[in-house]
Design goal:
single chain; alpha+beta; 51% helix; 8% strand
């Protein structure tokens, strides 16, 4: 034990602490107002003699230095308060990259755990935010619309998916298309409430009117060979913007016969099955009733609106379901290639454009605000880390992932603001004129991109968890294995892809004209991945080439699947064995369970001391009469080893009249209070025991244990993963013995109290 002079304010502290001596399990006051007592316990004190090794403690304890720093601390309470506030704010952004954790592994683990807890809150928020913008109803909405417009067939059996010629197109557009678009009567032929508007399936409002738009190419956009010029009068090339026909044709008057640019239509390009198409063209808006729309389509058909130069026709319309607050924006595409025939495709986007309607939507608003706060927090954190580590910061893949998540989040926030403003601006304008085409394609496209961005951001956010749990042994094996074998895998990947792409070119040239899966080079690449997974139609290539087909298949499977692909596994497996062996030989030092055990043992120590004190007081009460005098009470407890100032504080708490005597009623109140405390302590001890059992499962063995400075001495059994009960006010437990400005010494508890 070492004693040093205490500051003048200590008597007031002792008086305040003494009055609550029975409530504060870590009360560490001293009976003397002129001395400060520090009690240093062996961490084994729960099970063994607490003073077993007290004589082995080194003499050079850092108390004089603590006193010096305490004397240098700012005396102004306002300055001290500002200093604590500054430290607290600065601690909010304390990470393993901003704190000096290299020499203090316990601080490293605690900082990492704090970062993990904060990040889990952020991850929960971004999950709520992302999933809150989606709905399981979206899939069924898309399914219902696709079945209606893609699978409904005409009397001749033509559906959209079966369109193969211009004749089929007109058959579909004048039959199943109009039947699916215009719903004005119930199944019993009774008119709907809003007979002028169409409610598809009685629930989905058709917004505005549908639009048909086509793109054409010029005649003589390609060259006919001299031998065929007499037989072939014209040549229409495949579609490209420079060969696009923009001249009026047919009846000339009307939008269907005159070309309109992409800017005039506020359109956008579309990537079809064959190529990419511009947002301009010749268009016609259908009418508000089925009969009028049929007449408009009949006029187009009779005047040969589709001809040899037609390369694509778009059918665009949008519907809205108020029950689920979702828009469904549909685009049916029929491409007419230069080879003849027709290729149908479609694009159905189910999006939520009106965001804030019900209580759940407003809950998501709160999540969005929290998300913005988190992004600000992480931006400041990254700036602090960049300020310390400069360009070396980007040498870690986890730091790069941090930057990616933050940048995607900032872009998502900005885009969300832009999307909300655009929806508010365009929604009223589009709905104000129900007799014109309502172009929701622009809004649906960007809403889809916004959802895609959030999906990618959420993916990276989940991957980032590995950053915080990487000091777990299992996670270390995974990350170390991948990091160590990365160069070998990269080098071997070059060899693998040389062979892989060689086979892809071979397959394209051998089977590209007959097998759909090999019709393009890109399809060949994906087809070969499918061969590795066993998803492949061998009969198709066998029928295409009975000699080279089997040779291609057998050699590809042998060299790529059995040899090269297994080489990747061999490299990873060999590296994993090396890493696992190194980790098994590594000394197990600081574990997460050590930190949990420290808290458990500290709690158990306090519970034990409290229990002993309660038992002693109960014995003193049993020895008393109906009126228990203070002297008798004090003498009984002093014989049990309790301090006089604590006995005085406990007695004064129940001696309401201050006559130094506990009457029968006051003794009953004390007994009742002690019994309640005993029951609570017993329950707390049982809970602590359960916690200790579960905590043993949490082990992070490869993190090195560090005992810094003199704040906790090695002789105090830190190596036994139990805490030294050295109380420090304003300092870091387990760190250096040097305490910051404003540090005030605090007394430790006596052995019994």
């Amino acid at each position: 034990l070492r004693a040093v002079h205490s500051p003048p304010s200590l008597p007031h502290e002792l008086e305040a602490l003494g009055k609550a001596a029975w409530d504060n399990p870590v009360y560490n006051g001293s009976p003397s107002t002129s001395l400060k007592i520090r009690a240093i316990y062996n961490p084994k004190s729960i099970l063994e003699n607490p003073y077993e090794n007290i004589d082995k403690l080194p003499d050079s304890l850092p108390y004089p230095q603590e006193r010096k720093k305490a004397e240098q601390a700012p005396r102004n309470p306002c300055s001290r308060c500002c200093l604590y506030i500054f430290k607290g704010i600065r601690g909010l952004w304390g990470t393993t990259l901003t704190e000096n954790t290299a020499e203090n592994r316990e601080l490293y683990v605690k900082t990492t755990l704090r970062e993990l807890l904060v990040y889990i809150v952020f991850l929960v928020d971004i999950c709520l935010l992302t999933y809150g913008m989606t709905s399981s109803n979206a899939y069924y909405y898309t399914k219902v619309m696709s079945e209606l417009f893609l699978q409904s067939s005409s009397d001749s059996g033509v559906s959209f998916q079966s369109i193969g010629s211009m004749v089929d197109f007109w058959d579909f557009s004048q039959g199943p298309l109009l039947d699916s678009l215009y719903w004005t009567k119930w199944y019993n032929n009774e008119s709907l409430a809003h007979s002028t508007q169409s409610f598809i399936y009685y629930e989905n409002l058709l917004l505005g009117v549908p639009r048909l738009r086509q793109l054409k190419v010029k005649n003589n956009s390609c060259v006919v060979h001299d031998d065929f010029q007499e037989d072939i009068s014209g040549c229409y090339d495949v579609y490209s913007e420079d060969k696009e026909d923009r001249a009026p044709f047919g009846l000339i008057n009307g939008t269907a016969w005159q070309y309109h640019t992409e800017e005039e239509l506020d359109g956008s390009s579309h990537w079809g099955r064959l190529t990419s198409y511009s947002g301009g063209g010749y268009y016609i808006d259908l009418k508000i009733t089925r009969a009028e729309s049929f007449e408009a389509l009949q006029a187009l058909k009779e005047n040969l609106w589709l001809d040899r130069g037609t390369r694509v026709v778009f059918i665009d319309f949008s519907v809205y379901n108020a029950n689920i607050n979702l828009f469904c924006v549909l685009r049916l595409v029929v491409e007419f290639p230069a080879t003849g025939g027709a290729i149908p495709s479609w694009q159905i986007r189910t999006v939520k454009l009106i965001r804030y309607v019900n209580s759940w939507d407003f809950f998501i608003v709160g999540c969005e605000i929290i998300f913005c706060v988190f992004i600000f927090y992480y931006v400041v954190e990254e700036i602090l880390e960049l300020r310390i580590h400069k360009l070396q910061y980007f040498t870690s893949i986890w730091n790069i992932l941090d930057v990616v998540v933050i940048l995607l989040s900032i872009v998502a926030i900005g885009f969300h603001i832009f999307r909300t403003l655009e929806v508010n601006r365009l929604m009223g304008e589009l709905l104000r004129h129900p007799n014109i085409y309502a172009d929701f394609e622009f809004l649906a496209f960007w809403q889809t991109q916004y959802n895609n961005m959030n999906a990618v951001n959420l993916f990276f956010a989940w991957i980032k968890i590995f950053k915080y749990i990487s000091f777990n042994k299992t996670m270390t094996q995974l990350s170390s294995t991948l990091a160590r074998c990365a160069k070998d895998i990269l080098g071997f990947a070059i060899m693998f892809f040389i062979v892989f792409f060689a086979y892809a070119q071979l397959g394209y040239l051998l089977f590209g004209t007959q097998v759909e899966n090999f019709s393009t080079f890109v399809k060949c690449i994906f087809t070969q991945f499918r061969i590795i997974l066993g998803d492949f139609d061998y009969n198709a290539i066998d029928n295409a080439n009975r000699v080279l087909g089997p040779i291609y298949f057998v050699t590809y499977v042998f060299f790529v699947f059995f040899v090269l692909l297994n080489m990747f596994l061999a490299i990873i497996n060999d590296t994993y064995s090396e890493v696992k062996e190194e980790l098994s030989n590594q000394k197990d030092e600081l574990q997460l369970s050590d930190i949990l055990k420290q808290g458990y043992n500290r709690t158990l120590m306090r519970l034990k001391l409290k229990k002993e004190r309660i038992s002693d007081v109960q014995k003193a009460l049993q020895n008393g009469t109906k009126e228990l005098e203070f002297e008798d009470f004090k003498n009984s407890l002093k014989e049990m080893g309790h301090a006089e100032h604590e006995i005085t504080a406990a007695f004064a708490r129940f001696d309401k009249d201050g006559n130094q005597i506990l009457d029968e009623e006051e003794q009953k109140r004390m007994r009742r209070d002690l019994e309640e405390k005993r029951v609570r302590r017993k329950a707390a001890a049982a809970a602590a025991a359960d916690f200790s059992t579960n905590a043993r499962k949490w082990t992070f063995p490869h993190v090195k244990k560090h005992v810094g400075g003199g704040g906790i001495r090695a002789g105090l059994a830190v190596q036994h993963a139990q805490p030294a009960l050295v109380e420090q006010r304003g300092g870091r437990h387990g760190g250096s013995s040097e305490e910051g400005p404003g540090h005030q010494p605090q007394e430790s508890p006596s052995p019994c109290f």
